[in-house]
Every structure is written in structure tokens, then in C-alpha cells.
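Sequence in, structure out.
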Amino acid sequence: MHTTDVLIVGGGIVGLGTGLALTGRATVTVIEAEHRVSQHQTGHNSGVIHSGLYYKPGSAKALNCAAGRELMYRFCEDNGVPHDRCGKLVVATDEREVNALAQLERRGAANGLRGIERLSAEQMREIEPHVRGVAALRVPETGIVNYRAVSELFARKIVETGGSVRTDTKFLRCTSEPGAITAETTTGPVRAKLLVNCAGLYSDRVARLCGVEPGVRIVPFRGEYYELKPRAAHLCKHLIYPVPDASLPFLGVHFTRMIGGGVECGPNAVLAFRRDGYRLRDVSLRDLWEYATNPGFWKMARRFWLTGAHEMYRSVSRRAFWHALRKLIPEVRFHDLKRAGAGVRAQAVSPDGRLVDDFFIRQAERMIHVLNAPSPAATASIAIGRSIAEMALKELA
């Protein structure tokens, strides 16, 4: 039997960030069901190092993003990971959005962002000549990186310092005994003093397999991307975002310059019919049954059915997606777009149908369950990992 101080279920960037923070202070084993780390949310996101502009001041998201952003930049600099603190524009496309832009500016200041500038239409076009709008915020602390490369480096560092990262290892269940937990996995049992659940899309199921009621259900939302063809990539020099809908935890379709080259457009946000459903045709009867029997899901659906219908239409209609992008850059032509990848976001939904909008962690005896870690979790992964590690060390003491 493999033994360890801390067993981390889930080899995404939050689980690996936690493992990295524990190295040298406890023995660590990370298990991942896929054949390599960062195969789901971490490996499918747009690679943005978020500034912390959007989050409610004092929230866990705001605090961890502020600290985690600078830790991520420092980690990349120290380890030679390509990154770019390129900045972004948040664009008000008409006068109705100017008040919301001002609110974002105040929120950014409350979250400690430096160098935010309010730009007129003329100033905005000096930075991004092809963008159209009436005003914008320039947010210089936003950047880009490849989070898959970051997480793979986290994994290497865990192993180099005596930890273990075991891929192709699926968590099945666990049993508790005095002083320890024994986890059954597809590659054999693991005995640990503490279990940390960072399973992302499957975090609520892992909690229930551990005998813990998570208090939320994970509902997966697929975010689909297009990419600008090379002939149109010059239309976007930085990151270009719309003013977001404050009632939703999604930022709207936007333009993202990628660290490896090219410009990505999106994502939308549509209900996925499977937890790892990266394509419209990916369907799980088990997941559909969970939706059907979850009262919180139906309450959410009643609240956001019109938004969901619009997002689904944009999913099946490239022309609708194109029209959304043209609100920011009218010069984008229909044939400038080509299908790119998709990601699936693990969104925790409460029993009353509320979309949980902050990090949500539930502790149990010898267990820590990370049940909602939405964006900016990748940006903040080092800071979040350190926070979870401190919780773990207190349990181990």
C-alpha cells in the first residue's frame, strides 16, 4: 500500500498548486484520472492572467487573485515560463454601458489594481485601432501564459522534491480509520493522513464518495472558442473584453491574444450534456439524470432560461457568434473565423439555484473539499494552493 501524508485528488492547477505548497512540509501524492495532468479546465482555458478587476472587494476571489497574480508572474519569471503582461481593454460599446464601466473602475481600485486608465473613444483607438466603442478601461496588470506549461512545471517540482504525481489513477472511494484515510484507486490503495479533493468537474462526486454532503452540485458549462485566421490577427493587439453582465459569473465573448501566437475569440457559455463534454454531441445519461433530479438545477434554469437560449443559439450559429464579436471589432469578417477548441467550466450550483460566485471549500474530518474554484483559479493557483496547504498543515498538526 502506498502511504503519504496528504493525498490530493485531481491533477489540475489548483491541486498541483496545493501539492507544490506542501512540498518540504509534508509528503504529498497527487492522483489524476487522465493520462497526464491539466487535461480539463486547466488545459482548456484561454491562458489569461487575470488582474482582479471584476471581483467583489474582500471576496476570496479578489484576495487570492491580487496575491496570486503577482506570484504567478514571479513564478514564470523565475522559471523561464513564457508570459506577457500585455494589458487589456474593457470596452463600453454604447452609452448604456458607461455607468457599468465606472463601477468596474471603482471595483478595480478597491481591489488594489494600479495603473487603470479611463479612455475616451479616441484614446482607445490609439491602443487598439480596430476597436469600436464609446469608452474603455485600460487594465495594464492583465497578462497571458500557457497554464498547461505552468501546471506541468508544478508537477515536476513536486516529484523533484520527493512527492508523487500518479496519472491514469482514478479515485474510487475512501474509508476512514483512526488517524488515517484509505483511498481506493484504480492503481491500488493509498493510505493518507489527510485527503484534499481538487477534482474540479467531479469534486461533488468525490465528496459524496468520501461520505461528505457537498452542499452544492457541479453543473458543467462548455465555453466554445473561435480563432482569427492569420490574415485577421492584426485586428487585436492586446486583450479586448466587453462590459460583463453583473448578474452572471461569465465575462462574455472577447478577444484574447495567445502566448503561443494567434488570437482566440470567445468563449460562450452553454450547458454541457456531459461533465467533460467538449463537443455538442458528447452526452452522458448519468449527468442528464443528475440535472433532471436536481431541484437547484431547475431553479437555475428558470432564472436564466433566456440567457441560456441565446448562448445555445450562438453555439450552433457561427453567424450569431460573429455578430457578437463585431460589436467590439466591426472589421472582423465572417470568413475570418475558424473553429478552435472548447473548455468546460465546473460551476457549483446551490440548492436554491444560485450560481456560486466565489471559491467554496468544505472541511470534514481529515478532509478538505474544494467544491468551487472558478476563474481566476488558474491565475490565483499559487495563492490558493498556499491557503489550502495551511489548512492541511493545521489538520496534520
